[in-house]
Amino acid sequence: MSEDRDYLHGYTHEEQQRLIDQAEILAPQLYEGLDFSNHKKMLEVGCGVGAQTGLLAERFPELHIHGVDVSQAQVALAKDRLPGLIKQGRVQFTCADATDLTAMEDDGFDSAYICWFLEHVYEPIAVLKSLKAKLKPGSKVYLTEVNNSSLFVQPYSPNILQYWSQFNDYQWTINGHPFIGLMLPNLLLKAGFKNVVSEPRSFFFDDRDPAEREKFMNYFFGIFNSANDILVRKGRIHHEMIKEVQNEFERAMTSEGSVFYYSYVRATAEA
Ligand SMILES: C[S@@+](CC[C@H](N)C(=O)[O-])C[C@H]1O[C@@H](n2cnc3c(N)ncnc32)[C@H](O)[C@@H]1O
Q1: pTM
Q2: CB-ligand 1 contact for 113 (6 Å cutoff)
Q3: What is the third-level CATH fold of 13-270?
Protein backbone atom coordinates (compact mmCIF):
# COMPACT_ATOMS: atom_id res chain seq x y z
CA MET A 1 0.00 0.00 0.00
CA SER A 2 0.57 3.53 -0.64
CA GLU A 3 3.92 5.08 -1.40
CA ASP A 4 1.98 7.23 -3.89
CA ARG A 5 0.05 9.13 -1.21
CA ASP A 6 1.16 12.63 -0.25
CA TYR A 7 3.70 12.29 2.52
CA LEU A 8 5.86 15.27 3.39
CA HIS A 9 9.12 13.42 4.09
CA GLY A 10 8.83 10.82 1.34
CA TYR A 11 10.12 7.24 1.46
CA THR A 12 13.67 7.50 0.16
CA HIS A 13 16.55 5.53 1.72
CA GLU A 14 17.87 8.82 3.15
CA GLU A 15 14.54 9.45 4.84
CA GLN A 16 14.41 5.93 6.24
CA GLN A 17 17.93 6.37 7.64
CA ARG A 18 16.90 9.77 9.03
CA LEU A 19 14.18 8.06 11.08
CA ILE A 20 16.70 5.55 12.45
CA ASP A 21 19.18 8.31 13.40
CA GLN A 22 16.38 10.44 14.84
CA ALA A 23 15.18 7.65 17.13
CA GLU A 24 18.70 7.24 18.58
CA ILE A 25 19.30 10.96 19.02
CA LEU A 26 15.95 11.69 20.67
CA ALA A 27 15.65 8.53 22.78
CA PRO A 28 17.04 10.01 26.04
CA GLN A 29 14.45 12.80 25.92
CA LEU A 30 11.52 10.90 24.45
CA TYR A 31 11.74 7.98 26.86
CA GLU A 32 12.25 10.06 29.98
CA GLY A 33 9.32 9.22 32.26
CA LEU A 34 7.86 6.74 29.79
CA ASP A 35 6.83 3.58 31.60
CA PHE A 36 5.47 0.44 29.96
CA SER A 37 6.94 -1.90 32.59
CA ASN A 38 3.51 -3.19 33.69
CA HIS A 39 2.31 -3.74 30.15
CA LYS A 40 2.56 -6.81 27.95
CA LYS A 41 1.11 -5.96 24.57
CA MET A 42 1.61 -2.64 22.79
CA LEU A 43 0.22 -1.30 19.52
CA GLU A 44 2.58 1.19 17.87
CA VAL A 45 0.72 3.15 15.23
CA GLY A 46 2.66 4.85 12.42
CA CYS A 47 5.77 2.85 13.37
CA GLY A 48 7.72 3.74 10.20
CA VAL A 49 10.83 1.61 9.79
CA GLY A 50 10.56 0.33 13.39
CA ALA A 51 13.25 2.77 14.52
CA GLN A 52 11.56 3.26 17.87
CA THR A 53 10.06 -0.24 18.04
CA GLY A 54 13.46 -1.84 18.57
CA LEU A 55 14.49 0.72 21.20
CA LEU A 56 11.22 0.29 23.10
CA ALA A 57 11.51 -3.51 22.98
CA GLU A 58 15.04 -3.28 24.45
CA ARG A 59 13.88 -0.92 27.15
CA PHE A 60 10.82 -2.96 28.19
CA PRO A 61 11.77 -6.65 27.94
CA GLU A 62 8.30 -7.92 28.95
CA LEU A 63 6.60 -6.04 26.16
CA HIS A 64 5.36 -7.47 22.86
CA ILE A 65 5.05 -4.69 20.25
CA HIS A 66 2.89 -4.79 17.13
CA GLY A 67 3.88 -1.97 14.77
CA VAL A 68 1.54 -0.73 12.03
CA ASP A 69 2.40 1.54 9.12
CA VAL A 70 0.63 2.37 5.87
CA SER A 71 3.81 2.11 3.78
CA GLN A 72 4.98 -1.26 2.48
CA ALA A 73 8.51 0.11 2.12
CA GLN A 74 8.62 1.17 5.78
CA VAL A 75 7.23 -2.14 7.01
CA ALA A 76 9.62 -4.12 4.80
CA LEU A 77 12.61 -2.29 6.23
CA ALA A 78 11.25 -2.61 9.78
CA LYS A 79 11.10 -6.40 9.30
CA ASP A 80 14.63 -6.47 7.83
CA ARG A 81 16.04 -4.43 10.69
CA LEU A 82 14.67 -6.50 13.58
CA PRO A 83 14.80 -10.20 12.60
CA GLY A 84 15.96 -11.31 16.06
CA LEU A 85 13.10 -9.64 17.92
CA ILE A 86 10.61 -10.92 15.33
CA LYS A 87 11.93 -14.48 15.70
CA GLN A 88 11.63 -14.24 19.48
CA GLY A 89 7.99 -13.18 19.07
CA ARG A 90 8.74 -9.85 20.76
CA VAL A 91 7.87 -7.70 17.75
CA GLN A 92 5.69 -7.92 14.64
CA PHE A 93 4.76 -5.52 11.86
CA THR A 94 1.67 -5.06 9.72
CA CYS A 95 1.08 -2.82 6.73
CA ALA A 96 -2.27 -1.07 7.25
CA ASP A 97 -3.92 2.33 7.15
CA ALA A 98 -4.43 3.30 10.79
CA THR A 99 -7.61 5.16 9.91
CA ASP A 100 -9.37 1.80 9.94
CA LEU A 101 -7.76 -1.11 11.76
CA THR A 102 -10.83 -3.35 11.77
CA ALA A 103 -9.25 -5.77 9.27
CA MET A 104 -6.29 -6.30 11.58
CA GLU A 105 -6.91 -9.52 13.50
CA ASP A 106 -4.72 -8.81 16.50
CA ASP A 107 -6.44 -6.97 19.38
CA GLY A 108 -6.61 -6.91 23.19
CA PHE A 109 -3.65 -4.53 23.46
CA ASP A 110 -2.96 -3.06 26.90
CA SER A 111 -0.95 -0.05 25.72
CA ALA A 112 -0.19 2.09 22.69
CA TYR A 113 2.59 4.35 21.45
CA ILE A 114 2.38 7.05 18.78
CA CYS A 115 5.22 9.39 17.88
CA TRP A 116 5.68 11.93 15.06
CA PHE A 117 2.73 10.37 13.24
CA LEU A 118 -0.63 12.14 13.68
CA GLU A 119 0.74 15.27 11.99
CA HIS A 120 0.64 13.28 8.74
CA VAL A 121 -2.92 12.05 9.05
CA TYR A 122 -6.02 13.52 7.45
CA GLU A 123 -8.45 12.16 10.06
CA PRO A 124 -6.66 11.94 13.42
CA ILE A 125 -9.87 11.34 15.36
CA ALA A 126 -10.70 8.35 13.14
CA VAL A 127 -7.20 7.01 13.82
CA LEU A 128 -7.59 7.43 17.57
CA LYS A 129 -11.05 5.81 17.57
CA SER A 130 -9.71 2.95 15.48
CA LEU A 131 -6.83 2.56 17.95
CA LYS A 132 -9.17 2.67 20.97
CA ALA A 133 -11.23 -0.19 19.54
CA LYS A 134 -8.08 -2.36 19.65
CA LEU A 135 -7.29 -1.56 23.30
CA LYS A 136 -8.52 -3.15 26.51
CA PRO A 137 -10.37 -0.70 28.78
CA GLY A 138 -7.87 1.16 31.00
CA SER A 139 -4.99 0.74 28.54
CA LYS A 140 -2.35 3.45 28.66
CA VAL A 141 -1.50 5.46 25.54
CA TYR A 142 1.49 7.75 25.02
CA LEU A 143 1.51 10.23 22.15
CA THR A 144 4.33 12.59 21.18
CA GLU A 145 3.67 15.12 18.45
CA VAL A 146 5.05 18.28 16.91
CA ASN A 147 4.31 21.93 17.53
CA ASN A 148 6.12 23.55 14.60
CA SER A 149 4.99 27.04 15.61
CA SER A 150 7.53 26.90 18.45
CA LEU A 151 10.77 26.99 16.44
CA PHE A 152 13.21 29.73 17.44
CA VAL A 153 16.75 30.26 16.15
CA GLN A 154 19.20 32.94 17.25
CA PRO A 155 20.92 34.61 15.34
CA TYR A 156 17.94 35.84 13.38
CA SER A 157 17.65 33.51 10.35
CA PRO A 158 15.15 34.78 7.78
CA ASN A 159 15.66 31.93 5.31
CA ILE A 160 15.09 29.30 7.99
CA LEU A 161 11.87 31.09 8.96
CA GLN A 162 10.65 31.38 5.36
CA TYR A 163 11.51 27.78 4.59
CA TRP A 164 9.76 26.60 7.76
CA SER A 165 6.68 28.59 6.85
CA GLN A 166 6.57 26.90 3.42
CA PHE A 167 7.20 23.49 5.00
CA ASN A 168 4.28 23.91 7.38
CA ASP A 169 1.96 25.50 4.86
CA TYR A 170 2.63 22.70 2.38
CA GLN A 171 1.80 20.16 5.08
CA TRP A 172 -1.57 21.92 5.55
CA THR A 173 -2.31 21.60 1.85
CA ILE A 174 -1.84 17.82 1.99
CA ASN A 175 -4.19 17.62 4.99
CA GLY A 176 -1.53 17.24 7.63
CA HIS A 177 -1.27 19.32 10.81
CA PRO A 178 2.15 20.78 11.70
CA PHE A 179 0.97 22.00 15.12
CA ILE A 180 -1.01 18.92 16.12
CA GLY A 181 0.80 18.45 19.42
CA LEU A 182 -1.32 21.27 20.83
CA MET A 183 -4.50 19.53 19.63
CA LEU A 184 -3.79 16.19 21.34
CA PRO A 185 -5.99 16.68 24.43
CA ASN A 186 -9.01 17.73 22.35
CA LEU A 187 -8.49 14.89 19.88
CA LEU A 188 -8.10 12.28 22.62
CA LEU A 189 -11.25 13.46 24.42
CA LYS A 190 -13.20 13.44 21.16
CA ALA A 191 -12.06 9.88 20.47
CA GLY A 192 -13.33 8.78 23.90
CA PHE A 193 -10.08 8.53 25.89
CA LYS A 194 -10.07 9.37 29.63
CA ASN A 195 -7.63 10.88 32.12
CA VAL A 196 -5.96 12.93 29.41
CA VAL A 197 -2.76 14.68 30.47
CA SER A 198 -0.70 16.92 28.20
CA GLU A 199 2.83 18.10 28.76
CA PRO A 200 4.71 20.59 26.58
CA ARG A 201 8.36 19.52 26.38
CA SER A 202 11.27 21.28 24.74
CA PHE A 203 14.67 21.08 23.12
CA PHE A 204 16.51 24.16 24.35
CA PHE A 205 20.18 24.58 23.45
CA ASP A 206 22.56 27.51 23.95
CA ASP A 207 26.09 28.28 25.22
CA ARG A 208 25.55 25.96 28.20
CA ASP A 209 26.38 23.02 25.91
CA PRO A 210 27.71 24.03 22.47
CA ALA A 211 28.44 20.44 21.42
CA GLU A 212 24.86 19.30 22.10
CA ARG A 213 23.55 22.44 20.37
CA GLU A 214 25.55 21.62 17.26
CA LYS A 215 24.54 17.94 17.29
CA PHE A 216 20.87 18.72 17.74
CA MET A 217 20.80 21.49 15.13
CA ASN A 218 22.48 19.18 12.68
CA TYR A 219 19.73 16.66 13.29
CA PHE A 220 17.02 19.32 12.88
CA PHE A 221 18.63 20.52 9.65
CA GLY A 222 17.96 16.98 8.37
CA ILE A 223 14.21 17.52 8.89
CA PHE A 224 14.41 20.57 6.65
CA ASN A 225 16.40 18.67 4.03
CA SER A 226 13.84 15.86 3.96
CA ALA A 227 11.37 18.28 2.34
CA ASN A 228 13.75 19.97 -0.15
CA ASP A 229 12.71 17.95 -3.19
CA ILE A 230 8.98 18.21 -2.69
CA LEU A 231 9.06 21.92 -1.83
CA VAL A 232 11.16 22.69 -4.92
CA ARG A 233 8.85 20.58 -7.10
CA LYS A 234 5.82 22.45 -5.74
CA GLY A 235 7.53 25.76 -6.54
CA ARG A 236 7.52 26.82 -2.87
CA ILE A 237 11.27 27.23 -2.50
CA HIS A 238 14.26 27.44 -4.82
CA HIS A 239 17.79 26.11 -4.67
CA GLU A 240 19.28 29.41 -3.51
CA MET A 241 17.02 29.31 -0.46
CA ILE A 242 18.23 25.79 0.36
CA LYS A 243 21.80 27.10 0.29
CA GLU A 244 20.89 30.09 2.49
CA VAL A 245 19.12 27.81 4.96
CA GLN A 246 22.27 25.68 5.13
CA ASN A 247 24.40 28.80 5.75
CA GLU A 248 22.09 29.95 8.53
CA PHE A 249 22.08 26.54 10.19
CA GLU A 250 25.89 26.33 10.00
CA ARG A 251 26.25 29.81 11.45
CA ALA A 252 23.87 29.08 14.35
CA MET A 253 25.43 25.66 14.96
CA THR A 254 28.87 27.10 15.52
CA SER A 255 28.41 30.67 16.85
CA GLU A 256 28.83 31.66 20.44
CA GLY A 257 25.57 33.15 21.72
CA SER A 258 23.33 31.13 19.41
CA VAL A 259 20.10 29.57 20.65
CA PHE A 260 17.97 26.75 19.31
CA TYR A 261 14.52 26.13 20.78
CA TYR A 262 11.75 23.78 19.74
CA SER A 263 8.82 22.53 21.73
CA TYR A 264 6.71 19.41 21.22
CA VAL A 265 3.89 17.86 23.22
CA ARG A 266 3.56 14.55 25.00
CA ALA A 267 0.06 13.45 25.94
CA THR A 268 -0.99 10.43 27.93
CA ALA A 269 -4.46 9.00 28.32
CA GLU A 270 -6.41 5.85 29.15
CA ALA A 271 -8.72 3.88 26.86
C1 LIG B 1 7.64 10.58 10.55
S2 LIG B 1 7.27 8.88 10.36
C3 LIG B 1 7.42 8.38 12.07
C4 LIG B 1 7.71 6.92 12.22
C5 LIG B 1 7.96 6.45 13.66
N6 LIG B 1 6.86 6.74 14.55
C7 LIG B 1 9.24 7.02 14.20
O8 LIG B 1 9.20 7.82 15.16
O9 LIG B 1 10.30 6.64 13.67
C10 LIG B 1 5.51 8.82 10.08
C11 LIG B 1 5.02 7.48 9.56
O12 LIG B 1 3.58 7.52 9.51
C13 LIG B 1 3.18 6.67 8.44
N14 LIG B 1 1.79 6.97 8.09
C15 LIG B 1 1.29 8.07 7.49
N16 LIG B 1 -0.06 7.98 7.35
C17 LIG B 1 -0.42 6.77 7.87
C18 LIG B 1 -1.66 6.08 8.05
N19 LIG B 1 -2.82 6.62 7.62
N20 LIG B 1 -1.66 4.88 8.65
C21 LIG B 1 -0.49 4.32 9.09
N22 LIG B 1 0.71 4.92 8.95
C23 LIG B 1 0.76 6.12 8.35
C24 LIG B 1 4.19 6.98 7.34
O25 LIG B 1 4.22 5.96 6.37
C26 LIG B 1 5.48 7.11 8.16
O27 LIG B 1 6.19 5.90 8.18
Answers
A1: 0.95
A2: no
A3: Rossmann fold (3.40.50)
